[in-house]
């Protein structure tokens, strides 16, 4: 399978005009789950709510969770075809998938999304805050007030709003998982506001883990490096997309399929003694010269 991941590195220059991007338009399309991945009922009978679950990392998480026995609800902004494809993939695993369209930067929508999930499945065991946007700039002076607010609303406010809405329904043994980023640990000159939101996610995750420990709710995060998702061609110019991930030690971008199992781990009993931690999946980004 590592050969397949390596082969996926070869891709033409490409760009999508609008975020968060569409997976069906990517060349090649990301690998969602390994054919060799064997579920073992690690999440049997559980229900997960995943923001940004229509494509990229979120789609991979949804399909991995389904293969491990969970029903899922996914939040998406406006990528209807991607969302329908994710539902098809989840249902192909024999599980149910609820689609929730809306802007998770809105507190009211987050409340409604949780309520709809409870109405459909009668419970909630795992919350995955994954929705994100990012905008390249040549300098911090180019960050408009609108962009700053929007990036924080999508990336960080949504995390807080979803947690607030979900907490009344999360019991002992539940898990909250945030999607952070290597940029919160290293920064990024071209994505300073995005990196700042990921730093906020990191700090909030650590704080939340402390505040929910007595309730036996675990709170952790994944910190991806360069991963081949729709956000990449929707963010970077075509020439940068072609070489995306080449600066890691493994000389390629990662695939969503290489992250999904880590979310399964943090959601399952295998991680019962893990809270307030981030798993780094970045191809050696920290060590790359």
Task: Provide tags for this entry.
single chain, 289 residues, alpha/beta, Rossmann fold, seven-stranded parallel beta sheet, 9 helices, 7 strands, 37% helix, globular
Describe this structure in words.
There is one protein chain. With 289 residues, the protein is α/β, with parallel strands linked by helices. Helices cover 37% and strands 12% of the residues. The protein has helices at residues 2-7, 56-67, 80-92, 107-121, 145-166, 183-186, 192-212, 238-242, 260-267; strands at 47-51, 71-76, 97-101, 126-129, 175-179, 218-224, 278-281. Helix 3 links the parallel strand 2 (71-76) and strand 3 (97-101). The relative contact order is 0.17.
Produce a short descriptive summary:
β2 (71-76), α3 (80-92) and β3 form a beta-alpha-beta unit.
